[in-house]
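User: quick one, fold this
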Amino acid sequence: MTGERAAETLVTGAWLGLAQVALAFSVMASAGAAAILFFVLSAFWIAGSTSGVLGARGPRITTGVLVTALVLVALGRWMLAAMPLSGAALAVGLVAAFVTGAYAGAFLRDRSRAWGEVRALLFHENTGFVAGYALGAGLLLSNALALDIALLVAGLAVLAWRCASMASRR
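Assistant:
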């Protein structure tokens, strides 16, 4: 159980890192690559994380936040390709950052009960996040399509783990 819990947390962190890189690229590219947009995106992410910790209660709501984040991240990436330099793509990217951050907060709150030792949970999630961020940056520099594929695969893995976890609670 502990190994599976650690693997889920690492993969979740990796997906969050990949998502942040992909969203940062989308937001900056959709509005002309202004560096301030990275900080705006980070503010939306942190506000979302706070709302996820404080607001999303229960496994079904948390799973709904995850599904919404997956859809919004995919929509934001698609909008970048379809409508570069678009205010609509910028808006979707920022909302996606808020909702993805909300999932991060809700995940940490939800899983902290199972872990008991919050430091270990944060260590595994942050290790996954840094690995996902580094992988995302590398993929973005070499092949943005590979970033999208990695983001999709990791996101579906997180969703599968979440659904399996909900099924085992019944």
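User: anything notable?
Assistant: DSSP finds six helices and no strands in the chain.
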